[in-house]
């Protein structure tokens, strides 16, 4: 949807860039369709169990490598034991184009080879606490794509989960990249704004977020 008030691209911190409306509706539809496929198997989407017994409010499915707190494996021992779906080359290519766009540098995507993606689905009540993406053994950037309902995305500092942080709204089609000095910044999703998405993406309700990463793990 075209914003009534234009949303400019913004660098929140060195290496952390928000590009509103990067994906068109057709690309979002294709991503939603791909995510629907991955959500159905070989490892179905589920609420990740936490070591202390709770469950995450978001539902997650992974491709390439399976993430569970706090490691990556090829098979989903905490779900059904199956090997996760492969990470497709078209998604890696999209990741390289995302870096070129975010960093406004034609060379920014060279050599970027993401090998895992976490796909999170948020219903209207789901949130994600402040955390670092630090189970990867690589400092390569994280590329984040959002579809569906707008959320408040909180992007903080690399020291702790508290202030200073900046809240930005991530809407459908938005790109967010965090790399370089911001790669290990704390971030989270304090709230989703139900009913703000465009059903033309194929997502009638809720929010989909896909983050691609480089695990740095061998083959
Ligand atoms: C994440 O931190 O893994 C997800 C962030 C988001 O949903 O925007
Ligand atoms: Mn994260």
Helix content: 10-25%
> Please, what is the average pLDDT?
97
Give the helix/strand class. Answer: alpha+beta
CATH homologous superfamily classification: Alpha-ketoglutarate-dependent dioxygenase AlkB-like
The number of E-state strands comes to: 14
State the strand order across the main sheet.
1-2-12-9-14-7-4-3
- Overall form: globular
Largest sheet: 8 strands, antiparallel
Order of helices and strands: EEHEEEEHEEEEEEEE
Distance between the termini: 40 Å
Bound molecules: succinic acid, manganese (II) ion
Please state roughly what percent of the residues sit in beta strands, choosing from under 5%, 5-15%, 15-25%, 25-35%, 35-45% or over 45%.
25-35%
Count up the domains.
1
What would the CATH topology be?
Jelly Rolls
CATH architecture: Sandwich
Spatial extent as radius of gyration: 16 Å
Keywords: Dioxygenase, Iron, Metal-binding, Oxidoreductase
Pfam family, one: 2OG-FeII_Oxy_2
Domain Fe2OG dioxygenase: 113-216
Protein name: Alkylated DNA repair protein
Structural description of this entry:
GO terms for molecular function: broad specificity oxidative DNA demethylase activity; ferrous iron binding; oxidative RNA demethylase activity. It comes from Kitasatospora phosalacinea. Keywords: Dioxygenase, Iron, Metal-binding, Oxidoreductase. This is Alkylated DNA repair protein. By secondary structure, the protein is α+β, with helices and mostly antiparallel strands. The radius of gyration is 16 Å and the shape is globular. The chain has helices spanning 25-40, 89-103, and strands at residues 10-13, 16-19, 46-49, 55-63, 66-68, 71-73, 116-122, 128-131, 142-148, 151-155, 166-170, 175-178, 187-192, 207-213. The longest helix has 16 residues, at 25-40. The protein has one domain: Alpha-ketoglutarate-dependent dioxygenase AlkB-like (Jelly Rolls, Sandwich), CATH 2.60.120.590.
